[in-house]
Amino acid sequence: MSKIRHDGSIIRTFGVTFHSSQTLQYSVFGWDQLIYAMEGVLAVQVSEGVWTLPAHRALWVPDGVEHSIHIAHSASMRSLYFRAGSIRHLPRRSSALNVSPLLRELISACIELGALSSRKPAHRRLAAVILDQMKTIPSVPLQLLMPKDPRAVAVAVYLRGNPAASLSQAAAHSGSSLRTLERLFESETRMPLGAWARRLRIQVALEFMASGSAVGEAAMRCGYNSPSAFISMFRRELGVTPGAYLGTSRQHTQTARARKRS
């Protein structure tokens, strides 16, 4: 997507459901973007890193920031576009937002309308409520900073495609020593390589679980010998169990489905 015309709209929308793996390349000029998965999990990559978004999180991407959106399995993506700089309380960098049940319904209402016009008082009021609901949250552990050095990038790509691989296997794949890679990751991502790999496995495991995999299956596919070991690591990193974390996401989805049926 490239340019969106200024035609009196204060919010424009884009909604699509994917049923298979997809990667979308974006570069939007003149509009800030809110990216949200109504169902499933999205992985959004910007220059500084990758964000994993379950259904109770969204990503704020300011005007002009090139990014790609990866759907590992299936997902229902919803995007809102705001005139660049019109939301002054949000930063001019990519940031995570919490999606409350109210904000979720507001996003759905916008998608149904197609666009909110500055010429319609009801649309202006709806936009004001949406802006009031949009508040940033701490990035950890949704964001994973990406290294720049080609050797470290090779390891990052390998581990995403092979989350059960050991760090030694990843180092051998890159042709670099483990010590060199540890130094590169520490300097370029501000995280030790082991901690970076754990967070990556959380991101990949969330994608597996969002596609229907049980916790135990996701754990094994990410290299953990037992579900309990994976759950313990997940709780240390996020403060809750995988079931509790995804339960919030599924509760959002189930609530929306129930309202559609009523």
Write up what this structure looks like.
44% of the residues lie in helices and 24% in strands. It has 262 residues and is of the alpha+beta class. The strands form 2 sheets. It has a 6-stranded antiparallel beta sheet with strand order 9-6-3-8-1-10, with helices on one face. It has a 5-stranded antiparallel beta sheet with strand order 2-7-4-5-11, with helices on one face. The chain is globular and about 60 Å long. Mean pLDDT is 87; it is low at 1-5 and 251-262.
Features:
single chain, 262 residues, Arc Repressor Mutant, subunit A, 2 domains, 6-stranded antiparallel beta sheet, 5-stranded antiparallel beta sheet, 24% strand, disordered C terminus
From the spread of the alpha carbons, the general shape counts as globular
Rounded radius of gyration (Å): 19 Å
* Fraction in beta strands: 15-25%
Largest sheet: 6 strands, antiparallel
CATH class of the largest domain: Mainly Beta
**What is the total domain count?**
2
Class per helix and strand makeup: alpha+beta
Overall mean pLDDT: 87
**Helix-strand string:** EEEEEEEEEHEHEHHHHHHH
In the predicted model, the low-confidence regions spanning at least 5 consecutive residues are 1-5, 251-262
Within the CATH hierarchy, at the fold level, what is the topology of the largest domain? Answer: Jelly Rolls
Distance between the termini: 35 Å
Q: Count every beta strand, where a strand is a DSSP E run of 2 or more residues.
A: 11
Q: Order of strands across the biggest sheet? A: 9-6-3-8-1-10
CATH architecture of the largest domain: Sandwich
> Number of DSSP helices?
9
In percent, how helical is the residue content?
A: 40-55%
